[in-house]
Design brief:
This protein is mainly α. The chain has a two-stranded antiparallel sheet with strand order 1-2. It is globular, with a radius of gyration of 23 Å. It has one domain: Up-down Bundle (Rhopdopsin 7-helix transmembrane proteins), CATH 1.20.1070.10. The chain has twelve helices and two strands. The N terminus is likely disordered. It starts with 9 loop residues before the first helix and ends in a 13-residue tail after the last helix. α3 runs parallel beside α6. Belongs to the G-protein coupled receptor 1 family.
Length: about 350
């Protein structure tokens, strides 16, 4: 499989330039003849780059506000707030790399091998830590609502260790990026790319490992946890007429739907690519190009999830808006009357012992 492939559909034309997979020489006999390569137009390439930059700006602003609000309210910080803080930090670190990926999309990789490895590791750490943190947030929401009598202080002593464990585990799972990420010319092209460059007889085995790990620990396991916790939580909320808990249910549903919207298409494409490259399904030029285009396209949705987190977990929450307004009042940027009018208009209540201070 020494060449790239073509696809008659428009989607391939959009993303064909960046369809680079783990090893182009692993299965040279998998196709009978080389397939043509069609590059995306400059307009499309720059549009995708611009989209990455917009996601970067929204992510930096939104997640910075989350960090500001959570750190400002140290005394009322809950377990979920600690997870939200770490989630915002992970998204901030990843957002810093988006301009680099934007240049790669629009042109080629011009930043060298060190930056290739570093940005790839940050991308993977964000992928793992972000979804794992979402899973632990769902566990905390489950405990807070289903077991509402449990005191929040009973859980605070171990939440920091959980967060440290998530970061360490995410970094360990990202180590293959350091070992195999390289800068090399794309097949049949002089343009440089930043991608995995796995060689030798162990190529197929490592390809499976590198794909199974993120799909298992970065998607399937957290998804099962989230579906269980949120399923039980929503069932419990349906049994109550409390308006505050009904609003919490809306946030929970938004969490699940946006998570699936952003990551399910990418992981389906990743699964199809794994099946194709391990020979489970027959490989043709059309299938190869279609899957590569789907991976490139759905990756944009995955990247966009980093800027959606503040909207889901913070801006929808009345408590976050209230605490943000309190900061503005403390800084003299708005009057106390505005804060009081907001509290009255939103029926804000601060008596919620087992819930997050930002949701």
């Amino acid at each position: 499989m020494g060449d790239t492939y073509t696809f008659d559909g428009d989607l391939s034309v959009l993303f064909e330039k960046f369809n680079f997979t783990y090893d182009y020489t692993a299965n040279p006999s998998s196709v009978s003849e080389p397939c043509r390569t069609e590059n995306a137009s400059p307009v499309i390439r720059y549009f995708v780059a611009l989209l990455y930059c917009l996601v970067c700006i929204v992510s930096l602003v939104g997640n910075s506000l989350v960090v500001l609000v959570v750190t400002y309210n140290k005394g009322n910080r809950s377990v979920t707030d600690v997870y939200l803080l770490n989630l915002a930090i992970a998204d901030l670190l990843f957002a810093l790399t988006l301009p680099i990926w934007a240049v790669f999309r629009a042109h080629e990789w011009i930043f060298g091998t060190v930056m290739c490895k570093l940005t790839s590791v940050l991308k993977e750490v964000n992928f793992y830590s972000g979804i794992l943190l979402l899973a632990f947030i769902s566990i905390d929401r489950y405990l807070a609502i289903v077991y509402a009598t449990r005191q929040a202080t009973e859980k605070r002593h171990w939440v920091k260790f959980v967060c440290v464990g998530i970061w360490v585990f995410s970094l360990l799972l990202s180590l293959p990026m350091i070992a195999y990420r390289e800068v090399f010319p794309a097949p049949n092209s002089s343009q440089m790319v930043c991608y995995e460059n796995i060689r030798g007889n162990e190529t197929t085995k490592w390809r499976v490992v590198l794909r199974i790990l993120p799909q298992t620990f970065g998607f399937l396991v957290p998804l099962v946890i989230m579906l269980f916790c949120y399923g039980v939580t929503v069932h419990r909320l349906f049994q109550t007429k409390n308006s505050q808990k009904k609003k919490a249910m809306k946030v929970i549903l938004a969490v699940v739907l946006v998570f699936l919207f952003c990551w399910l298409p990418y992981n389906i494409s990743l699964l199809a690519d794994t099946l194709l490259r391990t020979g489970v399904i027959a490989e043709t030029c059309g299938r190869r190009s279609a899957i590569d285009a789907a991976l490139s396209g759905t990756e944009i949705l995955g990247f966009s999830h980093s800027c959606m987190n503040p909207i889901i977990y913070a801006f929808i929450g009345q408590k976050f808006r209230n605490n943000f307004l309190k900061i503005l009042v403390a800084r003299g940027l708005i009057s106390k009357e505005i804060l009081m009018r907001y509290r009255k208009g939103s029926s804000f209540s601060s008596t919620s012992g087992n819930t997050s201070t930002t949701l």
